[in-house]
């Protein structure tokens, strides 16, 4: 078997066999296939595409190119939830303990944030002494005992995907549906869970800007899961404006705890309940209404908050018995911005606000950038809300007065109002599962 022949085959829009895809992934991972040949094959995939079988085989080979977490020792349903990334998206911090409170087991490996999107691991590391790196034995013991653990992705997890993505990033081959879908799902398959809910973000602050593109990605990922023996559902949710009100790591942890205490922003709470209810359906079947009632009960009784606190303490985080929140540092500069006009807020674009928070230090412009867990934004108003002169619009949490000045000027651009109200886009836009 020769790589040049497989490049030609894909260039001519011919389907590859399972053995041929295995040859490509194994050869590239171990260095016997050079970057220039792999880049040529990736470009051919961008133009010619891959069928469902090819995409599933590629995902399987990437997942098994390194460590694969074996969760068979856990005597209960293993679940996972993945988001394609957005601004203010802290649902993992809510969904994971909610699922655990309902008898599911969440052995979750999460990533860090990049650019305007946040990362779950960055959020959790804002908690004093919280450990996001655990030995496999300690990780599995915590999941078995408490039902939930969230750690950083292992370096040995899907190494073929890491190597392939690095090459795609510099060769203009990122924007390929089968390559995107297999990249995401390879890490989910390697993480070992049998039931997976995918939160596919749609809109200004999302990787997928249009509903049609998001549907295509969701469908591809659900089909991969079905072919590889996983129970998968994809929920398409709005990301035209930030989710919740907090943008920034420590601020988002506090807001997540507010939801776990029965409060918090309605959009964040509703989406978290919906995603968890879909996990219940994947595991147990039944109606969405019944599943939602069970999830809402776990939230109302404090069972989910208890699980979250167990997880924080088990992973070394500092959380006093009588404290509402775990120990986290606060930004030294806090400034409130107020409205200078009345009407209805026209737009709160997720990407722009995520970028402002990133420039305050809450996110990374590059993978090697350091972040400041204390800083970020809190929004008091959302797009479509009616406002009056003097109403609080946002709160800036900054490291310096100069940073706060810059953020205030940037926020002023998005304080535009209209004399007419407009219909808000639904939070849940669509849903795709293995049955259509």
Automatic annotation (TrEMBL):
GO annotations of cellular component type:
cytosol
Substrates-to-products reaction catalysed: uridine + phosphate = alpha-D-ribose 1-phosphate + uracil; thymidine + phosphate = 2-deoxy-alpha-D-ribose 1-phosphate + thymine; 2'-deoxyuridine + phosphate = 2-deoxy-alpha-D-ribose 1-phosphate + uracil
Q: Which segments constitute the Pyrimidine nucleoside phosphorylase C-terminal domain?
A: 344-418
Instruction: List the GO biological process terms.
Output: pyrimidine nucleobase metabolic process; pyrimidine nucleoside metabolic process
Q: Any idea of its EC number? A: 2.4.2.2
Keywords of the record: Glycosyltransferase, Transferase
Report the superkingdom from the record.
Bacteria
Instruction: Tell me the NCBIfam families matching this sequence.
Output: PRK05820.1 (NF004490), Y_phosphoryl (TIGR02644)
Return the similarity comment. Answer: Belongs to the thymidine/pyrimidine-nucleoside phosphorylase family.
Q: What is this protein called?
A: Pyrimidine-nucleoside phosphorylase
The scientific name of the source species is: Ferroacidibacillus organovorans
This protein's gene is called deoA
